[in-house]
Design brief:
By secondary structure, the chain is α/β, with parallel strands linked by helices. 34% of the residues lie in helices and 26% in strands. The chain has helices at 14-23, 39-46, 54-60, 72-84, 99-111, 127-137, 167-170, 173-189, 283-292, 301-320; strands at residues 3-8, 27-33, 49-51, 65-68, 88-91, 117-119, 144-152, 193-201, 214-221, 226-232, 243-250, 253-257, 263-267, 271-274, 324-325. The protein has a nine-stranded mixed sheet, covered by helices on one side. A six-stranded parallel sheet has the order 3-2-1-4-5-6, with helices on both faces. Helix 5 (99-111) runs antiparallel to helix 10 and helix 8 packs across helix 10 (301-320). The longest helix has 20 residues, at 301-320. The radius of gyration is 20 Å and the shape is globular.
């Protein structure tokens, strides 16, 4: 039996949703709300029924899963409405940008424990990051001591919608960009963040109070581990792509993923590149199929909510310019 998906919005990483639908015979895109200029395209390709708003779509369609790919400021309301309708829901990151919406979502999850919530944390499906997890969780570097994550890119102002550069709409770089690494490191190490100190800056547009293009975060973790995370939009065009890296240092070695996606391991048994990587997984397809079959998705509900909580707390810490304790949601 096919899993019926309703899509709300076609912003940001919606190609990942379409790729998951296209690769699976079990997933059917039956309806799309807020499709904009892509309405006829999606109606023709998938036979999807088109709606102006998600509320009407929820009322008229028999859906199993809702996928949300809107401007971040608009996503929280749809996630909440989907849960209230008793539907599984997964969204682009950030799931939402307001603490009040995250609290409301967590409360609804407690009321509807059978409804799963996901987030497009695509690094969990990446072969390189999955290999880091396998090595770290398998004891390949001993106990985790400290970690580092970088997510940086060209600004691409001419190619991106204006909302992307307005933290009132996007949530800013920590929830919208660095959340990938925040979640990935939780997943790789199995260690929760307990406190965060952060600083964000605007080095390009001093007259724009809602723009940030660089930041550093310092996390305290469980078991006395620490982590530093960085983001910026200052990558040189000569670099030819995003500059994203991660390194985990342990008591018996270290492992990292380079900007080229290479996994490098140094321990008592290995020195150099690791090439036996797992296969790529589409986290949307994984969520959709597993949520509807009673299995635990690669991006589980607890992780979707807690990684969102960490990102929002880190943003609050940057605004307060002080060390902040991170609540467990």
């Amino acid at each position: 039996m096919a899993v019926n998906v309703g899509l709300v919005g076609v912003e940001q990483h919606v190609p990942h949703v379409f790729a998951g639908i296209d690769e699976s015979d079990e997933i059917e895109l039956v309806a799309v709300a807020r499709a904009g200029a892509r309405a006829e395209e999606l109606k023709g390709k998938y036979g999807a029924r088109i709606y102006d708003d998600h509320a009407t779509m929820f009322a008229q369609e028999r859906l199993d899963v809702v996928a949300v790919c809107l401007i971040p400021v608009d996503q929280g309301r749809v996630v909440i409405d989907a849960l209230e309708a008793g539907l599984h829901v997964t969204a682009d990151k950030p799931l939402m940008i307001a603490q009040e919406e995250l609290d409301a979502t967590a409360a609804l999850v407690r009321q509807h424990p059978d409804c799963k919530v996901g987030q497009l944390f695509t690094l969990r499906g990446s072969p390189g990051y999955a290999k880091l997890r396998e090595i770290v969780r398998g004891g390949g570097i001993g106990d985790v001591v400290q970690s580092y994550g970088l997510r940086s890119a060209l600004e691409k102002r001419a190619q991106r919608a204006p909302w992307f550069f307005d933290e009132r709409l996007s949530g800013g770089p920590i929830p919208d960009l660095l959340i990938h690494d925040i979640d990935a490191l939780r997943w790789i190490t199995g260690l929760e963040y307990t406190h965060v100190l952060a600083r964000e800056s605007n080095f390009a547009r001093p007259d724009d109070p809602y723009y940030r293009n660089a930041g550093q975060l310092f996390f305290l973790q469980e078991q006395n581990a620490t982590a530093i995370m960085e983001h910026h939009r200052l990558v040189s065009p000569a670099f030819a792509g995003m500059d994203c890296r991660m390194k985990v240092v342990g008591t018996d070695g270290q492992v990292e993923i380079t900007a080229k996606g290479e996994v490098i391991l140094y321990n008592s048994d290995h020195a150099g590149q690791v090439t036996d990587l797992p296969t790529l997984q589409n986290v949307f397809a994984d969520f959709t199929i597993k949520a509807c079959s009673g299995q635990e998705p690669l991006v589980d509900t607890a992780s979707a909510l807690q990684s969102m909580q960490v990102a929002l707390t880190a943003k609050a810490a940057a605004e307060a310019d002080t060390l902040v304790a991170i609540p467990q949601i």
